[in-house]
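Much of our argument rests on the idea that a fold can be written as discrete symbols. In the encoding step, the backbone of a single protein was reduced to a row of integers, each denoting a local shape. This step matters because it turns folding into a mapping between discrete strings. For completeness, the protein is quoted in full, as a sequence line and a line of structure tokens:
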Amino acid sequence: MKKNNTVGKILSGVLTVLVALVPAKAALVLTGCPSTTNNNGTETPTPDLPGPQEPITIDLLDNERNAGAELKGELTLAEWRNIANRLEQTINSWFKNSPEVGQIWLLNFFNDDITFVIEPEPNFTRWKTIGDYKTLNLNPNLTDSDLLIALQDGLSSMSRGDSAVDGTIQTGGARVSVKIF
């Protein structure tokens, strides 16, 4: 008889814990708090916390060719979506309003697997290149007009293979900048 009483107490304790946990999980679901585990079983950041986001392809709108660049960064989900949209709009507006030679220049970049990296706490004002001809780091806090200037100057520096920060060459290619846009 004593054995059944012990099993009953254990079951009662387990039920008490379950009864306490179910409303807490239901409250999270009902209030819209996302799960921090994705389909792969790995942790993903909640939208209000900075963290690595899934890379996005920034598409260059061109009727004849398919071209794009990868966007990487560690921001909140809202910041991530904002900068991705702003970057794509700025690039496509620049492309659309450029002469043919400028469009070809941009297409060459976007056909060459370039990557834009958004740094949440950058140690530069607008942009940084690392001398690999493929990576342009951008400050996420740029205004729309500053974003266009950063793209123009940063891609020019990147095309020369410079390692540069906001126009100051650290190492790398030519010291002359030629803009064709």
The mean pLDDT is 75.
